[in-house]
Amino acid sequence: MKTNRIEVMQFLGQNIEGEIEEYLKDIDTNWQPSDFLPKNNDPEFTNEIKEIQEQCRELPYDYMAVLVGDIITEEALPTYESWLIDIEGISKAEPQGWSKWIRRWTAEENRHGDLLNKYIYLSGRVDMKQMEITTQHLIADGMEIGTARDPYRNFVYTSFQELATNISHRRTATIAKNHDNVQLSKICGVIAADEMRHAKAYKSFVTKIFELDPSEMMLAFEDMMRKKIVMPAHFMRQQGEKIGQSWSHFSDAAQRLGVYTSIDYTQILESLIKDWNIESIGNLTGAAEKGRDYLMALPERFRKVAERSSIKSPLDYKFNWIY
Questions:
Q1: pLDDT digits (tens, 9 = 90+) for 124-161
Q2: Which architecture characterizes domain 3-24+45-308 according to CATH?
Q3: 286 within 8 A of 92, measured Cβ to Cβ
Q4: Of the residues 62, 70, 109, 150, which is catalytic?
Q5: Catalytic residue among 75, 150, 194, 213
Q6: Averaged pLDDT of the chain
Q7: Can 58 be counted among the known catalytic residues?
Q8: Of 38, 114, 163, 265, which is most buried, counting CB atoms within 10 Å of its CB?
Q9: Which of the following is catalytic: 112, 137, 169, 249?
């Protein structure tokens, strides 16, 4: 870890209050899961649960698999907080610095799993115990995303990942609406909006790093894209399976459904190259210039691969989460 990375993080951390004010919402006025669920003291509580179950009855199998996989990913939040809080340049001893951002970001993200978990329980479509076993495995198994403790690589990852989750939740919202499930569509939509705000935050952190340390930031971006961005739940497994065994089937379902595809991966990369103005960044070392050249050519390479790959047919695989 080069010393200048820590210095850059400490410098940026001095304005973390401004970042929190711009990109995170006030807790006392923010939405909470109960805002989108039946009130448990309402005389119509039981009838509203029946309505939820009726609305969910016709949702396709692939949709339920993707929705539950998204929930499990959101519920693994303890892993994500412990990963971010360990980045170089973030001090747990400074509650008003970067660690405050991570706690506040975690607090917003925590509502996503809570809301979806409660809704899916009421739907009657999901074996909650099996879903909970998968979630516990995912937290226990951890993750390996190739960022180590480097803040530059980690912020590339979070920028990409928040955009990916925004797409996934937006698409599940659209599909729910197409099946006349307005309530679930609103739930997925409000979560997608959170993810976009968070993506804007992490992208802004990278923009500021490019201003302060352009060559090292460029090399970090190049390195992450050479490794390829893996999803945080890529170790997902059902009861009795090996680590990561159910992940590929979940990904196939998302691809078949059009919730998150290889084309989306390419378009996210293109958007980051544009937002970070990669083509025009100056004062780069020779190695960083080569890194920039690699990044600028990468979307076209990815697009050709994506166009050649076909959406896989349903496999003879059963998600034990779904009744």
A1: 999 999 999 999 999 999 999 999 999 999 999 999 99
A2: Orthogonal Bundle (1.10)
A3: no
A4: 109
A5: 194
A6: 93
A7: no
A8: 163
A9: 112
The one-letter amino acid code at 136 reads: Q
Task: Say which residues have a Cβ less than 8 Å from residue 228's Cβ, sequence separation at least 6.
Answer: none
DSSP letter string over 163-220? HHHHHHHHHHHHHHHHTT-HHHHHHHHHHHHHHHHHHHHHHHHHHHHHHH-HHHHHHH
Please indicate whether residue 31 is annotated as part of the active site.
yes
For the question of residue 165 being annotated catalytic, the response is yes
Residue type for position 117: N
Q: Is 195 known to be catalytic?
A: yes
Residues of the chain with pLDDT under 70: 1-3, 93-94, 309-315
Q: Which of 70, 108, 150, 195 is catalytic?
A: 195
Catalytic hit among 74, 75, 222, 264:
74
Q: How is residue 289 written in tokens? A: 């210039």
91, HSE (Cβ side, Cα atoms, 13 Å): 14
Catalytic residue of the set 75, 150, 162, 222: 162
Tell me if residue 162 is catalytic.
yes
CB 83 within 8 A of CB 161: no
Per-residue pLDDT tens for 3-26? 689 999 999 999 999 999 999 999
Quick one: three-class SS letters along 223-279? HHHHHCCCCCCCCCCCCCCCCCCCHHHHHHHHHHHCCCCHHHHHHHHHHHHHHCCHH
**Annotated catalytic residue, options 62, 70, 108, 198:** 198
User: What is the rounded CA–CA span in Å between residue 246 and residue 72?
Assistant: 12
Please say if 198 is a catalytic residue: yes
